[in-house]
Structure formats: C-alpha cells, structure tokens
Amino acid sequence: MSYVKPDQLIDQLVHSGVVKTNLTARQMFLRGTLSGAILGAATTLALTAAAQTGLPIVGALVFPVGFCVILMLGLELVTGSFALIPLAILEGRTTIAKGLKNFAIVIPAHIVGAGLYAALYVGVITYLGTDTTDPMIQAIIKMAEHKVLPYAAVGAGGVLVAIIKAMLCNWMVALGTIMFYTSTSASGKILGMWLPVLTFFGLGLEHAVVNMFVIPAGMLLGADISFADWWGWNTGPVLIGNFLGAVLFTALPLYFSHRNKVNRAAALQDDDDAETAPELAARHS
Fold first, then answer.
1. Helices marked H in the chain — which ranges?
2. Exposed end of the chain (fewer CB within 10 Å): N or C?
3. Are 216 and 115 spatial neighbours (Cβ–Cβ below 8 Å)?
4. How far apart are CA 86 and CA 158, in angstroms?
C-alpha cells in the first residue's frame, strides 16, 4: 500500500524537519534559490494560462506544477519548512537556532532565485526593454500592484488583512506539503499536494515566495511600487502570516491529534537504534 498512516506520517514530518536543519548552508542556499526560480516559472505559467483562456481558475489548476517539482526534487521551500521544522523542535530533535538558521538562509535564497527569474523573464517579454505589447506585462503589473496598493490604502488594517490572507494561504500550502508525505508513490504525492495548493492560488491568497517574483517583476515593468512598499505592505507581513498559518492551522493541530506518548517514544527509540547501528557495526568489523 502506498498510503502512509497518520501516526507514521508524523514520524516522517518530524524526520524531514530534522533533515532540513542539518543541511549545510550551501545546500540550503542552492535549494532555496532553485525553489524561488521554479515558483516564478510556475506563476508565469499560471498567468499565461489564465490570459489565454480568460479563466483564472485554469491558472490555479496548473500553478501547483512548481510545488510538485520542488517537493519531488527535495528542494527547500520556507513556507513548507514553517510546518516541518517547528515539529522537529517541539520533539527536541533539533534546536531553535538550527531552525532559525534554515529560515535565515533560505528566505534570501528565494529572493535571489525569484529575482533572477524575474529579471530574465522581464527581459524576454519586453525584448530587452524595446517592446511593451506583450499582454503578460500588464498582467504582472496588475497582479503586483494588487498585492501592495490595497493594503497601503487601508493602513494598519491593511497589514492585518495581509497577515490573515497569508495565514489562510499557508494553511493550504503547509497542508499540501504534509499531504506530499501521505503517499510513497510519485503519483500519490503529486495528487496529494496538488489540491491544497490549487486552492490557495485560486483564492488569491498571499504566499511570500510567489510574491518575491511577482512584485519585483512588476516593479521592473513599471508598477507603482517602491522597495519599502514591497516589504512593508506585503512580504514582511506575509512572511509572518505564512509562519503562523503553517504552525497554528496545520502542523500543531495535526501533530496533537495523532501524536501520543506511545508512538512518540517508539519514534525516538527507532532514531536511537538508527544512530547506534553504525557504531555497533564498526565495533564488530
């Protein structure tokens, strides 16, 4: 059977959080950079599909391809790690310092990857700044401004709205990340994560890494957004909301609904056995 039962699922989620915090800084940065670029490509695919069909829901249907690539290749996506790493910390299997190190490296890496893709894509659709007729130009500008200006118009209330939309977004994204672990087959993993991610994109919620492509690309194309607007009215609050959504709406409720002293002790014992096995083998060799 390819289905992973909930108690076994929690073991995998915690283990994944441990693995992510034990990566080298180079691995974190490279994996985060690739993820930022891939989500940028997925976003342009979604916008293109919506423009070609006139149906935004079609864009939402194809957008999860980016998440599939990221998860299947074992790359680093901070919004997924927001659910996994806190669970590893909760069980004492890694440290807060290691978790913060992962976030501190992967988030800038996302900006590098998404920004690089944005610069290259803008160069392509404008023919290096010589042509402004591509319909994707206005689509990106409109999307970028929609992710900043309405919040700025409301003021402090706009920041709260951005945080709430980001929480709702990462409720779905973190759920998609966790659903990825509910199957051992490639098809099961893809189907499991596709539906929650489709939901967040179709509802127009706020995902920090997607916005690391959309907003800089819009700025390069002439959107009425400054660097301070980008971070103050969107990415700063959205990162906070994405973290809260992953932890409060997804990771902790699932953990406490399935974890108990018995299966936690069994998981810890399995880890101890895995760690001591190489030592025993070395002694008898």
1. 6-21, 25-53, 56-62, 65-72, 78-90, 96-125, 135-146, 149-154, 156-180, 186-202, 208-220, 227-230, 236-244, 252-258, 261-284
2. C
3. yes
4. 28
Is residue 237 within 8 A of residue 170, CB to CB? The reply is: no
- Max distance between CA atoms of the chain, in angstroms, equals 72
Question: Tokens in use for 18?
Answer: 């441990």
In a 3-state reduction of DSSP, which class is residue 3?
strand
Summarize pLDDT for 101-131 with one digit per residue, the tens. 999 999 999 999 999 999 999 999 999 999 9
Of 196, 168, 169, nearest to 182 (Cα)?
Answer: 196
Reported as a pLDDT band with limits 50, 70 and 90, residue 272 is low
CA–CA separation, 117 vs 121, rounded Å? Answer: 6
223 φ/ψ angles, rounded to the nearest 5 degrees: -60, 150
pLDDT digits (tens, 9 = 90+) for 169-195: 999 999 999 999 999 999 999 999 999
